[in-house]
Amino acid sequence: MEKSSRRRKVKMIDVIILLLISVILGSLGQIAMKKGLTDSGGIELREILSTKLFSIVFQRYVFIGITFYLISTLLWFVILSKAELSFAYPLIALGYIITVFLASIFFKEAITPFRWFGILLILGGAILIMARF
């Protein structure tokens, strides 16, 4: 293998690792925000620009979720600077799979056969995208 080809492959593995960390943080952010919103009674659309929004944003779990999202976004900046968008962006869909599993664990949400089918389709698409990196 050529040196430049090997170097490019190593950089791509670094991008995939960063992407997976970013996706996991995004999924954990969703779980934390859901927990916080459930604990605080949630928010209605008409309350979005009210003072209730500020109390919810600073609710412990919601704040943790937002922090995870911020870190995920900062990692995404690095990913975008190193990878093709047509490669990296579809792999964010792995977050859907992770979030479904976390929701079933933390919130006892059911994964119906249709959801399993959707998960398999997303996973298949991610495998196809990564097959030629």
Please provide a written account of the structure.
This protein is an all-alpha fold and 133 residues long. The protein has one domain. It contains 6 helices and no strands. It has helices at residues 3-40, 51-57, 60-82, 85-91, 94-106, 113-130. Helix 1 packs antiparallel against helix 3 (60-82) and helix 1 (3-40) packs parallel to helix 5 (94-106). The relative contact order is 0.14. The mean pLDDT is 90.
The beta-strand count equals 0
> Roughly how many Å is the radius of gyration?
18 Å
Contiguous low-pLDDT stretches (5 residues minimum) are: none
Which structural class should the secondary elements be placed in? mainly alpha
Task: Tell me the fraction of residues in β-strands, as a range.
Answer: under 5%
Largest β sheet strand count, sense and barrel closure: none
Helix share bin: over 70%
Q: Count up the helices.
A: 6
Measure the end-to-end span. 15 Å
Please provide the ordered H/E string of secondary-structure elements. Answer: HHHHHH
Apparent shape: globular
- How many domains? The number is 1
Overall mean pLDDT: 90
SSE layout:
Layout: H1 3-40, H2 51-57, H3 60-82, H4 85-91, H5 94-106, H6 113-130
In short:
The protein has helices at residues 3-40, 51-57, 60-82, 85-91, 94-106, 113-130. The chain is mainly α and 133 residues long. It has one domain.
